[in-house]
Design brief:
about 325 residues, mainly beta, Lipocalin, twelve-stranded antiparallel β-barrel, three-stranded antiparallel β-sheet, 17 strands
Length: about 325
Amino acid sequence: MKIKTIGYLILFSLISFQSRAFAACDSCFVPRTARTSDYSLGADTGGFFLDFRYEYQNWDSRSESHDIGTDSEGMHSDQGEDSHADHEDEHRTSLSRHSEPGGHGHNRSQDRLYHFSAGYNFGEDLTVLAHLPFIERFELQDSGSERSDGFGDLTLLSTWRPIKWETGFAGPVLGVKLPSGDTSERNSHSERFEPELQPGTGSTDVIMGAAFEEQFAPWILRGNALYFLRTEGSQNYEFGDTTSISLFLDYTAYSAGNTSVFAGVDINFQHAEKDLQNGSVVGASGADLLFLGPNLTFSFAKNSIFSVAVLFPVVQDRGGDHQDLESVWFAGGRVFF
């Protein structure tokens, strides 16, 4: 199955020079590669850059969980000792469901990711990047809202552009995600959060694929196709290998001096294989996801880029009893030195 997926990725890259992806829920969503033409700015401004992006994931919470024992403000209401004991039993049952081969018991409400990156452009040929996120994950339980937070895994990524022409480029992307993130977060009951709710994964993953850009004024088309080869991480859990394909189409709405405004649309498709825990397949895992949404980018002062975007799900086939995303929001920028 992995060989077939890798073959499909290589074929797609050769035909359309397109790619894109990274995972947050580790089969739910993925950060953005080659979204802006950073290397051309970097070549003019010394090459070094710093990047910050805020990402907000809004989840479709399971109503049957937070409707029990809550008031209109979402706080736990007083229903007596018996009711409280029942809620505690349900809470423990929910936490144990994910450890079963077909279970998926969490009820997350939102994820907040703060993406910090630093990189260097070696002219127009090579870009290297180090990316470290700080992650907050919120889960609704019968006793209230629980939060897991901490630094996620460190990712090292490179984009090489051996093929260049007057209006664009194409080239491979290669990287590795290291198990540097926190995997021991616990809830208010001192129980360890399950793998999908931890900031880190505990696994070493390989990232490979391709990226491209083509300009046909006033339009700019960019994209990438990435494959994530995952290994077993903490709690004997292995997230499924993931293929991510993205297209970014921008229209130059305004350009004068050092200031430009681009209005665009982002498209992302992801296919994730089934997860494994203790060597057994997790039934409620794997996914075929398609996201679509608008993007607005501002380029100013010759060395700065700021962008905002929101993606909405068009297709969410998660292969079992798994929550869906309602939307994903991005805002942030990059400064070159």
